[in-house]
Write a structure and sequence with these properties.
The structure is a single chain. Strand 13 and strand 14 form a beta hairpin. The chain is built from 12 helices and 15 strands. It folds into 2 domains: 129 residues, 3-Layer(aba) Sandwich (Rossmann fold); 193 residues, Response regulator (Rossmann fold, 3-Layer(aba) Sandwich). By secondary structure, the protein is α/β, with parallel strands linked by helices. The N and C termini lie far apart (99 Å).
Length: 364
Amino acid sequence: MYKNLVAALAAACCFSSPAFSQLAPAAPPPLKIGFVYVAPLADAGWVHQHDEGRKAVEAALGPKVKTTFVENVPEGADAERVIRDLAQQGNKLIFTPSFGYMEPTLKVAKDFPDVKFESVTGYKTAPNVAAANARYYEGRYLAGVAAGRMTKTHVAGYVAGFPIPEVLQGINAFTLGMRSVDPKAQVKVVWLDAWFDPPKERDAAMTLFNQDVDVIAFHTGSTAVMAAAQARGKMAVAYHSDMRKVAPDAQIVAVTHQWGGYYTQRARAVQGGSWKPGNVWGGVKEGMIRVGDFGPKVPKAVQDEVLARQQDIATGKLRPFAAVAADVRDNEGHVVIARGTALSDEQILKMNWLADGVQGRVAR
């Protein structure tokens, strides 16, 4: 009997079937994804929103991805060095979210044809470089509506980084939105020639507040303008992120950028072998731009109006750069959008003028 038991155990140990004789296939290694940030990572702002997008990729794909980032990388030679280093470290998908990263990205991409690159806010593409941007101007128009309803002086301020088309689109859309509800509105612009310089941003805001400005917007990378508005008892439009932590009383509305969906989609495309270069430009309709996070000073009627017009943009009923009732002119008197027409995407992407109502010039 003992011999029979030993034989049975031996037979069991040596039993052969596909389930036992084949090991489960090893899981593929995680997709390594790199991000390059143009300013320090903070609690709010441009870089913060892109880092929220990075975290969204990790949350959606879990162990299938491994992300890393390098912060506070100046545009130019430093950017090329960092992008190249990320490629050499084995990252197969690299996001470079700043306009000045476009050329360094293209240069590095030539040397790493097996790596996919995403030039965010750039417009040039290559076989392994895609371009992506958001229709920030849609949110700016809506913020202008809120500002136009809230201002008492009819004067808004705008602290701007560089006079590139993206920034001009924002200034003009904000002005058109503001004047759609307050025809007397004026917008004063201060150019900084910097994306991230908190002291200069604050000083520019303070200068504008000394010129009858009671509501301010900005296109820079920090929360300095919001903090200045809070300190002076003025109103402000948050950009990139909800900034009520910094300016709980000053913030009237926030224009926020939502990158998580796009970043996750592109990572999945690399993993599935379906990634292709292209040029994506998404806005309110696609969920890449959202306006909300109203401050305590904003009446519900104004909130409802802004949200209703946001829905109009999503459905295509409202287009910020369309001339419906009259010609749209620049601040030198030239017709830039004829009545009954709208700018094409190509025209918007090449914008080089400031709208009537803007006090300032395009710095060249």
